[in-house]
Design goal:
Chain lengths: 317, 379
């Protein structure tokens, strides 16, 4: 059985699937990174992904254009982010509670919206067709290299965008004045405010960007990954993204590495579920990605704690 | 005078939040009729009115105009699990811990209780109590995990508890589908509970209003007493208000946080167990039942005060029943409740909602006070 598993894992196909599975988590994790840098915990990523996924999918169906679908998904993400921002910054709702409210809209509200727009219940099975899904892309040079070809080439456009976003978010945070402001506001809002930075404005922008990234993650889910929308589709990826952000120490590259780890766990789950000898353990295996998330978070927290203690010990000497 | 004005303000504020939420709901219902039904404008208004009638007064009044006693009993029955999860969330959030594993605890509690109810024969009466207690203990232990990780390592209790919901769900599903499955049935379920373990209805008429309701109300009082009349409850609330202050005044912060989470887990587990034994004959939940999230809404509505939980639970149970009636008779999806709930949630938790009005009240109060002291001096 182990041998069977190993032979399955060490394939180009498997590595390809890791990248594919990582992309939506990465989008949301980057969203979490940007928000957290501004001192905002965006727990509403999960719901944002669900709503963006639905409206993006529907738009691409109505307009028969996947580009418009993705744009609407992003727009919806931004609007949801700004809505959370409005309640958090203007009406002083606790940000965690605002996020939970968005998640409620994501889990039940989407089913309602789907019915409202189409009269369908629970999923959009009959809507999806190849021309409204996000197309795949062959990378010019890599597509000629034997092994890399089947791992790195042929992903959907948004998959490449996800990894490109790691660079973009890093540049945003560390190479622009907006990024400097975002970090300042997250580090010490009072200090930032005292030098004339509008804390609320920066936080609105950060949570808006966070929503946009989650929106892309949602579009990826419905318009490529599951090729349609259904009510259990996001399945905690928004929450896993929060863990990826924490494990990645709130940095874009770190978040990418942790997202890849969760992608690996998920891909492994998908493979093991397919093994005949393990059929009776399918449900336990399905829980593995979530368990890995907890374990990853614990290891990260423990290592940070040890570092802090060591630093304190050095200070004492 | 002063208190009266502020109470009035809180009442008006709550009512405004609920009204806004219902208005949002109404807009969506109207849109549903307009988009799906393809009816004329006037018909849409008529149908919306009809749907609203089912949602708002349906559980109370039958279509014929007589009192819907069965509907009300069902609403009370639906309060049982969410009262428990509401209490659990109150206790956990009071310590300022955003532990969201209530959802998983309900499922785990229901499953553990189901297993004890099937496999451990016992005397009638005692059996149900043992089932519920074991479920509570197991769920308390489960909740110990995010609590200890938070206290010892500083790992976010929110993320670990969210992930635990999924882990718990899959573990339960695994056992439901393997070791404890009743293969003779078409659907995935366990064997039926022993009769001794079932929690009887108060009035045997099929409303599912079991004695669990009484237990829930007893726990409302107990939790209220615990939070406001004991040392531990005080510590929990103090830590929630100002953790550093609590620490420097000598409270055991870590232990108290763990205590609050374990209690929260135990309460959620009890809720799941009582719901399971009072409503069903066999375990057949195939996904997280959603009571944990409703519990969060209830805690927000009750402002973390256990004694207000029954009111909030009643409101949500009523609304839920109304929504399901609406979906049965008017073809509007019952998920409407999530939209209304989210809106209520946002406005209720919004500290600055109607703050201009509050400001005016404060000014008024202060003026009145000043006037009084001035008059006092003259006299």
């Amino acid at each position: 059985m182990f041998g069977q598993l190993m032979s399955m894992i060490l394939t180009e196909d498997f590595l390809f699937s890791i990248i594919r599975i990582t992309a939506p988590i990465l989008f949301a994790a980057l969203g979490a990174v940007v928000a957290e840098k501004a001192g905002v915990t965006n727990i509403g990523l999960e719901g944002t992904m669900m709503i963006s996924a639905l409206l993006g999918m529907l738009t691409s169906y109505w307009t028969q254009s996947w580009v418009l679908g993705v744009l609407v998904a992003i727009l919806v993400g931004v609007l949801l982010g700004l809505m959370m921002g409005f309640f958090y910054l203007k009406l002083k709702t606790d940000i965690i509670l605002a996020g939970i409210a968005v998640n409620m809209l994501g889990s039940g509200g989407t089913i309602f919206l789907l019915y409202m727009f189409t009269g369908m219940r629970g999923n959009t099975g009959s809507l999806s067709s190849a021309n409204i899904l996000i197309p795949t892309l062959d990378i010019p040079l890599i597509k000629n290299i034997p092994v890399l070809r089947s791992i790195l080439s042929g992903h959907s456009v948004l998959t490449y965008v996800a990894f490109l976003c790691v660079v973009l978010v890093w540049m945003l945070l560390y190479r622009t004045s907006l990024g400097l402001n975002i970090r300042a506001v997250g580090e010490n809002p009072n200090a930032a405010s005292s030098v004339g930075v509008s804390v609320n404005k920066i936080r609105y922008i950060a949570i808006g960007i966070s929503g946009a990234l989650a929106g892309m993650g949602g579009a990826f889910m419905s318009m490529y990954y599951s090729q349609g929308w259904n009510s259990g589709m996001v399945a905690g990826r928004g929450f896993i993204a929060l863990a990826a952000q924490a494990m990645g120490r709130g940095e874009p590259v770190g978040a990418m590495l942790s997202s890849l780890l969760f992608g690996l766990a998920q891909a492994l789950k998908n493979k093991v579920t397919g093994l005949t000898g393990l059929a009776s353990y399918n449900y336990l295996v399905a829980g593995i990605p979530y368990l890995v998330t907890i374990i990853g978070l614990v290891i990260y927290a423990a290592s940070t704690l040890r570092k802090v203690k060591r630093r304190k010990a050095i200070d004492k000497e | 005078m002063k208190d009266k004005r502020m109470t009035m303000f809180n009442f008006v504020r709550g009512a405004a939040a609920i009204l806004i939420s219902l208005a949002v709901g109404t807009v969506f219902i109207f849109l549903t009729f307009a988009l799906v039904g393809g009816k004329s404008f006037g018909d849409c208004f008529k149908s919306t009115g009809e749907a609203l009638r089912y949602m708002l007064v349906g559980p109370l009044v039958k279509k014929s105009g007589s009192f819907n006693s069965m509907g009300m009993l069902q609403v009370l029955a639906a309060m049982i699990p969410i009262t428990f999860t509401g209490l659990a969330t109150c206790v956990m959030f009071s310590a300022n811990q955003f532990n969201l594993a209530g959802e998983g605890s309900v499922m785990a509690g229901g499953f553990v209780a189901a297993l004890v109810a099937i496999y451990l024969p016992m005397a009638s009466g005692l059996h149900a109590v043992v089932c519920v207690l074991i479920a509570a203990i197991v769920c308390g232990l489960i909740m110990y995990i995010p609590a200890i990780l938070k206290v010892k390592l500083g790992a976010s209790e929110m993320v670990t508890s969210l992930m635990m919901n999924y882990v718990i769900m899959y573990v339960v599903l695994h056992f439901l589908n393997s070791a404890f499955a009743d293969r003779s049935k078409g659907s995935t379920q366990t064997f039926p509970f022993l009769e001794t373990a079932k929690i009887a209805e108060i009035i045997p008429n099929g409303s599912k209003l079991s004695w669990g309701f009484v237990v829930a109300m007893v726990f409302v009082v107990l939790t209220g007493l615990f939070m406001y009349r004991t040392r531990w409850g005080y510590s929990i609330r103090m830590i929630g208000i100002n953790q550093s202050f609590a620490k420097y005044s000598g409270m055991k912060v870590g232990g108290t946080i763990i205590l609050s989470q374990v209690l929260g887990g135990a309460l959620s587990g009890m809720g799941g167990a009582i719901e399971m034994l009072g409503r069903f004959n066999t375990f057949l939940w195939k996904e997280l039942p959603g009571y944990g999230w409703t519990g969060v809404t209830i805690a927000i509505l009750a402002k973390n005060n256990p004694l207000m939980v029954p009111l909030a639970a009643f409101f949500l149970a009523y609304l839920n029943k109304g929504c399901s009636l609406m979906s049965t008779y008017c073809d509007v999806p019952s998920e409407m409740i999530d939209i209304i709930q989210a809106a209520i949630f946002l406005f209720f938790a919004a500290e600055q909602f109607l703050s201009g009005y509050r400001q005016k009240l404060v000014v008024k109060n202060t003026r009145a006070d000043l006037l009084k002291t001035a008059e006092g001096r003259k006299a």
